[in-house]
Amino acid sequence: xxxxxxxxxxxxxxxxxxxxxxxxxxxxxxxxxxxxxxxxxxxxxxxxxxxxxxxxxxxxxxxxxxxxxxxxxxxxxxxxxxxxxxxxxxxxxxxxxxxxxxxxxxxxxxxxxxxxxxxxxxxxxxxxxxxxxxxxxxxxxxxxxxxxxxxxxxxxxxxxxxxxxxxxxxxxxxxxxxxxxxxxxxxxxxxxxxxx
Length: 196
Prior knowledge:
Layout: E1 12-15, E2 18-22, H1 28-35, H2 38-41, H3 52-67, E3 72-80, E4 83-96, E5 101-108, H4 117-132, E6 137-143, H5 147-155, E7 159-170, E8 173-183, H6 188-194
Parallel strand pairs: 5-6
Antiparallel strand pairs: 1-2, 2-3, 3-4, 4-5, 6-8, 7-8
Helix pairs in contact: 1-3
């Protein structure tokens, strides 16, 4: 059976003022300006972007992954006086369709930290993952020293399943990572509605 006939690919979704939109070529400058900042990339699995060309290649790769149902990258936007302002990104990646699971990654510009936008973005990505893509499990690997992400996933009711020793190589230093997971259950729609 064709995978695409069983799932619904969502390119845009919103909740109140927060929108998730499929990454596009128009996001090149935003991603470059954002991801050249070490304050943002220090906890991500990528180095700061060195040039606009790197951003273009990254988006091209993301769109290829999207077309092959391997990864879904969204730009997080907020409505601001009838305009949409880009504030970060959230993605579903390392997708296993057989096991119905995906990893989640998220980052926000520092000026939007602690304002509830990350929680709403994760709420929306849960809807995409569980309702539209029919996944069963979302998981995130979070560095043990990334307190903001730890708090965010805990607030979004992800369960800390364990600590992975020396899981990540950070410039030659191996560091531990927590594994967080959120499982789909029969009360999913009610559960998601409660988090609004």
